[in-house]
Amino acid sequence: MANNTTSTKNILYSLYDSDSTLKYGAPRLIPNNKSGINVTADFPWTTLPARARTNVPCIELREYRITSSTLIQSFIQQARSAVDAIGGAGENFVGSIKNGIKMLDFNVSDDEMNKWLDALPNVKDVAFLDPYKHLYPVTSTGWYYIFPFLTGQNQKSSSSWGKKGKDDISQAITQTKTKGVSQGVVGNVINMAEIAGQTSKIFNILEPGSYTETIKHYTPPEGESYKVQFTLSNTGEFMDVQRNWELCFVLTYQNRPNRRSVSLLDPPVIYNTTIPGVNQLLYSYISDLQIDNLGTSRYINLPIGRKLIPEAYNISFTINSLLTPTQNLLLYAHTGSKIEVDVS
After folding, report:
1. Are 135 and 77 in contact (CB under 8 A)?
2. How does pLDDT run across 127-176, given as a tens digit for each residue?
3. CA dist 67 to 102, 129, 139, 213, Å?
4. Would you report the helix, strand and coil content of the chain in percent, each value rounded to 5?
5. How far apart are alpha carbons 178 and 176 in whole angstroms?
6. For the packed helices 110-118 and 70-85, what is the interaxial angle rounded to 10 degrees?
């Protein structure tokens, strides 16, 4: 049973400090309402009554905590790439990943490897989302938010093609091992292709101009981002004043790292984001969270203590995708189903 270090005077959250893994770290925030925080319907961001907010655009955030080292996950991802390069993982995914790790000569015991792989997350069984399985090991924090989404942003797409790809390939060849093809052979092929491009200029030296088309390489863009901004009024019901303050505290607390020891720092939470009718971001994070006081501020004695309360809060943040935007993710975003991430 949770050991709540705060009293029931808190409306939105309790503090949980019974997790032995935290040791000297800050306790976790546990939501008091399991159905989530619906700012769009229940908080004073507009004077419209609740019945008039039914079709207001909103953004939904399901919150998750990282459960494994992202450095280890990066290595496992490289092992997956190695497996994929020689024919794919097949049915035995975990076994194939173990083989990939061995291919890369990473010295790790079977017990340690099983611990990492057993904690891998999964997504709903949709074939074209398979490449996104097991990217970030997460577990739900229990927090679920619905915020008003008042911007006009919908979709955008950008592409970049240039010469950078050749350098990336050359670097990859010197840093990785490939089975069946030696590094020297592949490297020579790339060097010959580059020489051929220069040779054409020599053969046509007497002509007015010489230029051979070079193959450009595609560079994937960064993930999408969406801006969220709304104002919460503190001039209405007294309970709204405390709820507004607690919401500001929860958002700030959850999006800061947790120092668990001299050498351990847990990263902030990440989110599965849904903007109904617009997009879904399988893995995302909040950046640039800013809460500003508007109007006159004064101290008010609340059940949770004395707090400095303004006439209103202006809350703004940007939600950023951790994944490259692809056809796979866009298609799934508009199939009518919500992506749910869980731990298998």
Report:
1. yes
2. 787 777 767 778 889 999 999 998 877 777 777 777 765 555 445 544 44
3. 23, 21, 7, 48
4. 30, 30, 40
5. 7
6. 100
Q: How far apart are the first and last CA of the chain?
A: 23
Tokens 């309970």 belong to residue: 239
Q: What are phi and psi of 182, to 5 degrees?
A: -75, 155
Q: Amino acid identity of 165?
A: G
Q: Which residue reads 């999964």 in tokens?
A: 122
Give the model confidence (pLDDT) of 242-252 as tens digits: 999 999 999 99
Integer Cα distance of 129 and 126 in angstroms: 5
**Which two structure tokens, joined as six digits, stand for 125?**
């069984």
Q: Starting from the edge strand earliest in sequence, which strands make up the sheet with 58-66, in order?
A: 37-38, 138-148, 58-66, 270-275, 279-294, 312-321, 225-233
The encoded tokens of residue 96 equal: 């194939």
Backbone phi, psi, residue 243, to 5°: -60, -40
| Residue 132 and residue 282 in contact, taking contact as beta carbons nearer than 8 Å | yes
Q: Which of 36, 42, 29 is nearest to 60 (CA)?
A: 36
Q: What angle do helix axes 93-103 and 70-85 make, rounded to 10 degrees?
A: 90
At residue 106, the 3 state secondary structure works out as coil
